[in-house]
Amino acid sequence: MPRLALALRVILPAFWLGAVIAISFIEAPLKFTAPGITIPLGLGIGRLVFTALNILGVVIAAVLTIASIRPRPGRASAWLLGGVWVVLLLEILVIRPPLNARTDLVIAGAEPGQSPFHYLYIAADVVLVLLLLALAIVNAGRAIARPALSTP
After folding, report:
1. Is the peptide bond before 152 cis (omega within 30 degrees of 0)?
2. CB neighbours of 9 closer than 8 A, spacing ≥ 6?
3. Could you give the C-alpha distances from 122 to 78, 116, 117, in angstroms and in order?
4. pLDDT reading at 152 higher than 80
5. What is the rounded CA–CA span in Å between residue 35 and residue 86?
6. Residue 134 burial (CB < 10 Å; 0-12/13-18/19+)?
7. Which terminus of the chain has a lower count of CB atoms within 10 Å, N or C?
8. Any long-range contacts for 74-78 (C-beta under 8 Å, 24+ apart)?
9. Closest by alpha carbon to 74, among 21, 121, 141?
10. Rounded to an integer, what distance in angstroms lies between the CA atom of residue 36 and that of residue 27?
């Protein structure tokens, strides 16, 4: 089990990092340039996609937390994982509700104007990307240094 836990602590942050980059920084802005995509339609699709990304994040963070029980993570890994949880919960509990309310208004035909929450979500995702990258690097270094992974 310790080898599996170490492997998960390297693979899962890297996988989640790829998902966040692909969705938040590639798919989201490009979707609005596709022919026939209106702002309300793009926002509706975005809500579904970001809800799925947040669910994926919670599942991965939970598995990473469980995988960090044994062998115990180093101090840096534990702090980084804690930071990941803070950013994820901030996105889900603080930033997403006002964004969803704004999306509802736009889909209903209103023009609510600019919202700082969109920029806060982007900033949170940038922090999340940096934390996940650091977590993957720290855990990979720990896994490489651990001789148990190199023996059959």
Report:
1. no
2. 64, 67, 68, 73, 77, 135, 139, 142, 143
3. 24, 10, 9
4. no
5. 37
6. middle
7. C
8. 74/138, 74/142, 76/134, 76/138, 77/9, 77/135, 77/138, 77/139, 77/142
9. 141
10. 16
Q: Which of these, 126, 127, 119, lies nearest to 99 by C-alpha position?
A: 119
Q: Contact 132/13 with Cβ under 8 angstroms?
A: yes
Tokens of 137: 């690097």
Q: Which residues contact 72 (CB under 8 A, 6 or more apart)?
A: none
Number of C-beta neighbours around residue 75 at 10 A: 9
Which amino acid belongs to residue 106? Answer: V
The torsion defined by the Cα of 144, 2, 7 and 137, in degrees rounded to 10, comes to: -50
Q: Side chain identity at 7, as an amino acid letter?
A: A
Give residue-wise pLDDT tens across range 76-134: 999 999 999 999 999 999 999 999 999 999 999 999 888 899 999 999 999 999 999 99
Q: Which residue has the tokens 């001789």?
A: 147
